[in-house]
Specification:
The chain has about 220 residues and is of the alpha+beta class. It is built from 5 helices and 12 strands. A hairpin with a 3-residue loop joins β8 and β9.
Length: about 220
């Protein structure tokens, strides 16, 4: 299990959401990248120094500090879409190899390289910017059906990371709430929402949503 690439965004216009810019255009970076805790949502700050988000209401902050996607899943989409998909094209900061990103448990911790520890927090929910960026009509629906969303992570221990760094699963919590399960519950299978509440590391806004919808 390792990082295939570490990707940082280049700001570009966002005609799909009516914002001044988007940071979805992520490109692999040579050399080390500093990882820091960005603080609460609302400022545009994320976990990788040199990157940021522009839809500050919905992205960034502590619970969405770093986004990871598996190269194996990108390869599957590449075959389905019939076009090359470079690492970073889904807006992910970390493109991984050999790691079951969607099967990761909420609260699972990854040690990356010698210093950095990240904690799996929630699933990525697709938006109109993602669909517009890929120039694929119906992409949100297709991505949702597949339930391979990739994982957002919190920064537990900061430091530097780089492509090629090994990834070690340092901790797995005692429940069965995976990234994929959270995604399915939040999108097409609301009957699963009650199951999410055992995952203490799930963001509070997600737990509040699950409680409201299930009267828990």
């Amino acid at each position: 299990m390792k990082l295939l690439s570490v990707n940082v965004g280049r700001p570009r216009s966002n005609p799909w959401k009516g914002l001044s810019a988007t940071g979805i255009d992520k490109r692999p970076v040579d050399g080390p990248v500093a990882v820091v805790a960005p603080g609460p949502k609302g400022t545009g700050a994320v976990g990788l120094v040199g990157d940021r988000v522009y839809d500050v209401q919905h992205h960034g902050g502590t619970d969405q500090a770093v986004y990871a996607y598996a190269r194996e899943d990108l390869d599957g989409w590449q075959a389905e879409l019939g076009r090359p998909l470079d690492s970073g094209v889904f807006g992910e900061n970390l493109t991984t190899v050999g790691l079951d990103v969607n099967g990761a448990l909420i609260g699972e911790r990854w040690r990356i390289g010698p210093d950095v520890v990240l904690e799996v927090s929630c699933a990525r929910i697709p938006c109109v910017t993602f669909q517009g960026w890929l120039e694929r009509e119906g992409w949100i629906k297709r991505f949702t059906q597949a339930a391979r969303p990739g994982a957002y992570l919190r920064v537990i221990e900061p430091g530097d990371i780089r492509a090629g760094d090994p990834v070690e699963i340092a901790h797995r919590p005692d429940h069965d709430v995976t990234v994929s399960l959270v995604f399915r519950a939040m999108t097409r299978e609301p009957e699963l929402l009650r199951r999410l509440l055992v995952a203490d590391a799930l963001p509070e806004e997600s737990k509040d949503l699950a409680r409201r919808r299930t009267n828990a």
